[in-house]
Structures are given as structure tokens and as C-alpha cells.
Amino acid sequence: GDPARSQKCIKELAAQGVSFVVGPLVTGTATWAVPEINAQGMLTVGPVIAGENLAGKDDFFIKLFPSTEQLAARLSSYAVKKAGVTSLAAIYDVGNREYSELWYANLKKFIEQEGGRVSAPVVYKAGDAVRYDRIAETALEKKTQGVFVCASGFDSALLCQQLKKRGAVPVFLSSWASTNELITAGGRSVEGVILCQPYDWESDSASYRSFSDRYSGRFSRIPNYGAMFHYEAVMLLADAIAKAGPDPGKAKKEISPKGYFDGLQGRVNVDRNGDVTRPLYIYTVEKNRFRKVE
């Protein structure tokens, strides 16, 4: 999420004649890169960018991931109405601040609308000399019914280990944690966690099954949301270029002109600004596998 570096990369790509981009990976980087992307007229498809600060704009950035507001609304509703959890401690990684702060703010808003509360967050930055034990202890001192963690799959796993050592409380995770690393690094400590994600690990779509089989055969693991959404982004961009040619402005008009495209797991609605609406699923981890709850 470094502003100067993000914009410098876009300028360097433009100088090399690049007109189309798939990326970036995190909301922080995208937040600073998009103004330069628009200045350069470079059509960019962001497969996994969730921040709603980048939505609702008619620009050169196509956002294929639902907003943090949509995800937080779904997770909050499940926590209160299905899990019976109305008070949450919160932990998040400020290394991806633009994403994490939006997740926290939206979760707090929706939980409070249901009559609950979310405590002041315990924040840290991945990559530093992180004391996960102390973070867990501080969060549990809030005396809440559960804990929300907004961090990568690996960091979420380490935090779950420390939380579980100190007592069995429900743990809710952001979609950022929905990766294979959560399970491989977390083991039994991540059993029972709750996540909201726009990706269905159990989809029976023929297109998705074909993609999953080919991906697993090549990489010896099942694809996660990042793999699927990046594949969709490349296919969507390639189709637009095939129809419109190498002009980014013309290609932009071919990004789902019908208001939807056929994704690997079904129809994906796209509005005039290039923002998508996808089904959102509640998942848990059970016996070292992601299992759909609803």
C-alpha cells in the first residue's frame, strides 16, 4: 500500500506500452494505484479488491470482488441471528489498512444496528516482530462473546492458535483468511471458525469443476478464491480485447455490456461502473476442510 511505489509501478508499465492489467492484490495498493491507472487510461481488472472506496466510480478500474460492506453485512447478520453472538472483540492487520479498517468499520456498524457492540480494535502489522500471544490476550480482555480477526490466512491461523489456548470463544474471520494456509497452518485451532466469502468451495457448476480439476492436477491443491477470480479476470479481459481490439476505452465498453457475465460458479452481475454482485456464503472449517454452512 505504499503510494509512491504503487503509482511508480503503473507509470513504468505504461512507459512499456502496457494498456491492460490484472491486479493489484490488496486494497491498499489499489487505492493508491487507481488514480494513476485512470490518468494513464489503463484498463485494469481487480480480481480480489474488496474496498468499497474503489466502487461506484465510472473509471478504468473493474472490481470483481464484492465490497467489504456487503461482506460485513452478511457476516454480522449470521453472527447475531444464527450464532447468537452480539459482542465482539476485534483484531486486524494494519499492513492492509484500507481493507482492514473498512472491514472493521462496517462490521461495527452492522453489529450495532442489531443492538450489539464491537470493542475498540487490537491492531498490529504483519512482518514486524509480532507477539500473537499478547494480541490474543488483549483481545480476550474485552470480555466479549466472540472475536473478529481481519488478517491473512496464515496470520489468522496463528491468532486462532493463541485464542484457543486461552479459551474456546467463537472466532469470525474476514474473507482475506479464506485460503489453504488457514487450514495448513492452523490445524485444529481453526476448527469451527466462521467466514463469509463470495466463493463456493462446494460448487457443482460444470465450469468450476472443470477448472478445479485442471488446477488441482497442475498444482496439487484445490483452487482458492484468488485462483478462481484471477482466472475469471483474465478471461473477461481477453474477451473484451477480442471484441474491441487493443484500445482500453473501447474494451472497457465490452466488459459485460449485458450487465452480467458467466463466471465459473454461475452468473455474475456487473453494474455500469464495473462493480460486481455475487452470492455470499457462510463457511466454517470442519475436519481440515472448508464446509458450507449456508
The gross shape turns out to be globular
Q: Calculate the mean pLDDT score and round it.
A: 94
Whole-Å distance between the termini?
A: 34 Å
Q: What structural class do helix, strand and pairing data support?
A: alpha/beta
Percent of residues in beta strands: 15-25%
Specify the biggest β-sheet: 8 strands, mixed
What is the subunit organization of this protein? single chain
Total strands: the figure is 14
Number of helices: 10
**Which percent range fits the helix content?**
40-55%
Give the uncertain stretches in residue-range form.
Answer: none
Task: Give the topology string: H per helix, E per strand.
Answer: HEHEEHEHEEHEHEHEHHHEEEEE
Radius of gyration, Cα only, in angstroms? Answer: 19 Å
Quick description:
The chain has 294 residues and is of the alpha/beta class. The chain has ten helices and 14 strands. Helix 3 packs across helix 4 and helix 6 packs parallel to helix 7.
Write up what this structure looks like:
With 294 residues, the protein is of the alpha/beta class. The chain is built from ten helices and 14 strands. The chain has helices at 3-15, 27-40, 68-81, 97-113, 132-140, 153-165, 180-186, 206-219, 225-244, 248-253; strands at residues 20-22, 43-46, 61-63, 87-93, 117-118, 122-124, 146-150, 171-173, 194-197, 260-263, 266-270, 276-277, 281-286, 289-292. Strands 4, 5, 6, 7, 8, 9, 13 and 14 form an eight-stranded mixed sheet that branches. The chain has a three-stranded parallel sheet with strand order 1-2-3, with helices on both faces. Helix 5 crosses helix 6 and helix 6 runs parallel beside helix 7. It starts with a helix and ends with a strand. The mean pLDDT is 94.
